[in-house]
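Problem statement: downstream parser choked on a complex file, so we are re-checking the raw output for the adenosine-5'-diphosphate run. The parser issue turned out to be on our end (a line-ending mismatch), but while we're here, posting the original submission so the record is complete.
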Amino acid sequence: MKILFVASEIAPWVKTGGLGDVAAALPAALRAEGVDVRVLVPAYPALKQAFPDACEIARPHWLGGQLPNCGIREAHTDDGLPLWLVDFPPFYDRAGNPYSGPQGLDWPDNHLRFGLLSRVAAWIGSDVSTLDWHPDIVHCNDWQTGLAPVYLRYLPGAVAKSVVTVHNLAFQGRFARSTLAELGLPAHAWHVNGVESYGYLSFLKGALKHCDWITTVSPSYAREIQTDVEGMGLAGLLRQRTGELTGILNGIDLDAWNPATDPFIARNYDAAHLAAKAADKAALQLEMGLEDRTDLPLLGIVGRLTHQKGLDLVTEIAESLLAFPAQIVVLGSGEKTFEVAYRELAQRLPDQCAVRIGFDEGLAHRIEAGADMFLMPSRFEPCGLNQMYSLRYGTPPIVRATGGLADTVTDAIDEKIGNGFVFAAANPAALLAAIQRAVDAWHEPKRWRRLQKNGMACNLGWTGPARQYAELYEQIVDA
Ligand code: ADP
């Protein structure tokens, strides 16, 4: 089985969120299952620096519309995973993150930048490819790669089948109608059964319509996106394809996120030596300028500061929460109003609340290790990785019952298998009540240990999910 895995980011080189982690970990786990995988990503500066010797192996040309000729360079990760880099410096050699410039604004030519990535994926999956490796399936991820199934459908010579994984339905890649020709798509693709979506050209809609199979990153999210409330305008289409839509829960990288070996944290520990976690809490308090208090529960938050993540609910209840009393550390970046609200909170209550705005991999690890509990009150959460890291680090998560959070966290009410705290309504009162329950449980050390150990015993690796993907690939190719 040969799989071309296509993504717009890949950890550790280029990562803005969970997609980057998945693009690194799932292909590696698939290889361990005997699947022959190559990962196709844009040749961003960080990747070119990491792999200066990457050789050009092909030059796709005549790609249509305003898509430029480009190179494909080949590199290998330390573990031997082949990386194919789409090389066109005017598109990818830019400051900022993959999607936006240093000022936080989306690049105006993102349709061409990710259209090219999609088009090259389709080129590799068609009989015009000059490469000597031909994928059975092009596995796309999110809107940035969403036109690959569309090109495979509309252009001659397609050989490969396609799978699209939805990591977040909220991001659909919608552009003006005029981009249709720029992307080299035929006029008849502008259709409700093509790439048109509410008057825009939608990369994701095109993907969902034209791929052979759709997956998403948790079983609950697979159900939720078929409802009008959570379907982000695409529920009808997803319901039409319900027989070709599977939810496969993400795994986590058990080596990178292992409290027993984590090089980022002050003291390593495992489920049998949980007392050592206290040193990580003290180190985190020191690093973040909080009072060194062992008698207060320390809550952690890491993530994008956005409405999706429900982090406005936390600022709304912050006063009551900190009056428990408790301490809170926050690491994240995102919407300016959220950043301001958290900064103000930290200024008002500096002994109890510490906030770091930015992206900091090491600090994310230290919060997972040093916090007593972890907050994820997401309004919706396709899978979520941080709650799984929290489980692994013996830091029980407090989550809203949605998507992957609902599929991974079991409420402490079930003493046998409970590993965290789950609440239903996306409102401040429900969140506060869940935190109250968690704080009460934290004050009962025996009960708390049990929760921690239940979480640490969860099977969270990529082996299970990779097997599910491998089986799905077989099924698609056989169909
Ligand atoms: P999403 O992909 O929706 O942002 P996930 O929970 O699936 O959310 O994945 C987020 C990933 O990004 C996790 O690996 C998390 O640790 C990381 N992350 C998010 N924000 C930050 C940050 N400010 N600093 C470090 N890591 C972060």
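For whoever reads this later: The two ends are 14 Å apart (CA to CA).
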